[in-house]
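Try it yourself: sequence plus 2-acetamido-2-deoxy-beta-D-glucopyranose, in.
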Amino acid sequence: MPACVLAAVAATAFADLHFLAVADWGGLPVWPWTTPAQRRVAAALGAAAEAHDSAFVLSLGDHFYYRGVRSADDARWRRGFEDVYTHDALRGDGFWRAVAGNHDHAGNVSAQLAYAARPGSLWYYPSLQYRWREVLRDEERTSVDFVLIDTYVLCGGRSDRRRPPRGAARAAAEEAWRWLEGALAESASADFLVVGGHYPVHSPAGHGPTACLRRRLEPLLRSHRASVYLSGHDHALFHVGPPLSPAAVQYHGVGAGLLTSASARHAHTVPHGQLRFHQRGRRFANVVESGGFVGCSVSAAGLTVTHYGADGNALHAATVPPRATECEATGEAGIT
Ligand SMILES: *[C@@H]1O[C@H](CO)[C@@H](O)[C@H](O)[C@H]1NC(C)=O
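Structure, out:
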């Protein structure tokens, strides 16, 4: 018998933490500042947040194309964010839990931290990388740890556009990796571990996998038994999932906040048989009619990631069991 069969507890459990995730919704740097597809995703995101009583949305970078914001007072905040995500269910204090993408780093990332620091800000972004724990109100006191990482810094990207020496970027990257290893270790006791960042580890779409993350992040996610890794950068929804086992991390692409690209150029890089789902946009029509996001439900029984299109329809769902220690002992896991 598999030691951690999901269905064993699924019958009595109910989801009592729900959150959303979306990336790459960064609008346009010129009038009309947004697109029809971004507005449709925004409306569907709001409807999902209301229907599921979502606690927050993970916003995984590229919030403003193409060069981020200039300051905390940049008009893009209003034009590309506040005036687009207007649904009340998306407008709680700190509802938007952000980490930067490469396009954010091309502008003033400090301004995104400063915008978050204002009283009553919708934006939550205390530092470039951060972690927190949610504890469900169930008998088991099920815990979910969140670790949001800055993959641009981790991969040695320049931290601003004034081109600091490579040495400084490298030092910043090593400091960020040290922080990440500590954060993952601190999350050892959590029932679920959700890691989010901008660049993907695996991706079937136009940009494809990120070499630096495959080399250094993937082994860390596996050894620390992360439940899921959520990422953006590639403008697509996808799920790359090995068969469930304690070291099997499920990879979900959520970068369809503005549009879904038609590209499947890197499908061949996904480990054989592990591409569970890939939403592709239609070439030329994707600015109008594509896009999407994910919604995640957590209960003692499992964490379910559901992919939604811009019309709000569910396209794909996948569940992982908690990081139960008996799974580790036997090396077996199952989903029924
Ligand atoms: C970045 O934004 C912050 C907050 O608005 C501002 O104080 C700072 O001057 C900006 N930096 C640059 C280089 O414009």
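One thing you can check immediately is this: The two ends are 12 Å apart (CA to CA).
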